[in-house]
Amino acid sequence: MSYIAPDDILSLMAIILALTWLGFVIDGHRIGRVVPGVVFILTAGLILSNLSITPYSSTVADFIGQYVVAAAIPLLMIKADLKKIFIESGRVMIAFTAACVGIVAGVLVGYYVLAPWHVGAKVAGFYAGAFIGGTISMIAVGNAVQMTPAEISAATGASMIPSVCGLMALVALPNLRFVQRYLSYRSTSEATEPGTAATGASPTPEFRLTHITGALALTFTICALARVVERLVSAPVGHDQSPYHILYVTTLTVIIANVFPRQLQRLRGEFDLGMIFMYLFFAMIGLGTNITSFLANAVSLFFYVLLVLGIGIVVTVAVARPLKLDLTETVTGLGAAIVGPAATVAVVAGKGWHSMVSPAVMTGIFCHIIGNFVGVTIAALLQ
Predict the structure, then answer these.
(1) Is the dihedral of CA 115, 97, 334, 349 positive or negative?
(2) Which of 43, 151, 184, 355 could form a disulfide with 147 if both were Cys (CB 3.0 to 4.6 A apart)?
(3) Within a domain: residue 12?
(4) Residue 180 lies in a domain
């Protein structure tokens, strides 16, 4: 029994929102450059639940897991204009595709090697979605394959240190002599002026009530329509489609984003709102984590992630030369797949590859689209 009852909605919401606030504070602090706020959210939530202050499950957690996560997907992806993505990403998209192949290869090899040590089909799909699609796909796939909060927390926690190692490898890769000899290199510092690759948005997000309420109305409408489509599809195929709710939401979001690209590009504040929804989910995951279960699975998952990243990097570099990709394109595409667009932008900008910043951003948006589908497909095929 916990000190706070599972049906004490007000107290639990206060705690979850406080943990969410803590995550954003850490991300904005210099310590967030080393350890992201998500780690602090998960750790603080884990401490509260394992000291029996909060329950492992509650009605608030059920609501967040069932509705809030799905609602975050359209908010984070509603500007995924595929035409713009493919035009601006150029050959980096080829490198990203090669990196995706490498990640999938690593996921499959690791699954068959480490299957006896708590690495199942759900975890394989989870990591495929996580590394190809980032945090958005990681959470979406975890929900789609019906992983428990404890399983998601263990998988997320086990990937933290290997992910940092992956970022360090990405930074070091262009400096390795054998990589420089294997891949051609051209200076791109003069190709694009610094700072042109970001989306042009102000560092301080604009908060407009009409935009925020419109974004909320749109995202929940998409989720409701996805549920209707699920029911329509379930009858002819003879199989309940509710476990794939996230995929239907993703598909509808991409369709709407590409039917109304100009109108949606004017929307402001929706991405920040989506990030709040995601951090609420991380707080729920932390509170739902049983430390005993976490420690029993985290060690094998740690080595699994290292294997996935290692194979992904090797495969990407190996196929880059036959695909006639240069060093800058390879590193940018690889970064978009294993560490996400934000970290990749920081890496390529720090190298002076300013013409690679925009492709890193646009490829990173595309990775969110396909990560959900790849992760759920792998989990389904391995079960």
Answers:
(1) negative
(2) 151
(3) no
(4) yes
pLDDT at 134: 72
- 112 burial (CB, 10 Å; 0-12 / 13-18 / 19+) is exposed
Measured between alpha carbons, how far is 9 from 359 in angstroms, rounded to an integer? 44
97 closest CA partner among 254, 306, 351, 329: 329
Q: Which two tokens stand for residue 314?
A: 């090797």
Tokens describing residue 163: 């992910």
Query: What DSSP line would sit under 161-228, residue for residue?
Result: HHHHHHHHHHHHGGG-HHHHHHS-----TTTS-TT-SS-S--SS----HHHHHHHHHHHHHHHHHHHH
**Residue 315 near residue 102 (C-beta atoms within 8 A):** yes
319 in a structural domain:
yes
State the Cα angle at 362 between 359 and 364, rounded to 5°.
Answer: 105
- State the Cα–Cα distance between residues 333 and 116, nearest whole angstrom: 33
CA distances from 379 to 109, 191, 300, 315 (A): 14, 42, 18, 22
Q: What are phi and psi of 269, to 5 degrees?
A: 90, -5
- Per run of 10 residues, the mean pLDDT along the chain (length 383 residues) is 90 95 87 74 88 90 86 82 73 88 90 74 86 75 79 74 70 80 61 36 66 93 92 82 76 88 87 86 82 69 85 90 87 82 67 72 74 85 83
Domain holding 364, by residue range, is 70-271+298-382
Count of the separate structural domains present in the chain: 1
Other Cβ atoms within 10 Å of 262 Cβ, number: 7
Residue 48 lies in a domain: no
CA dihedral 135, 275, 231, 129 (to 10 degrees): -10
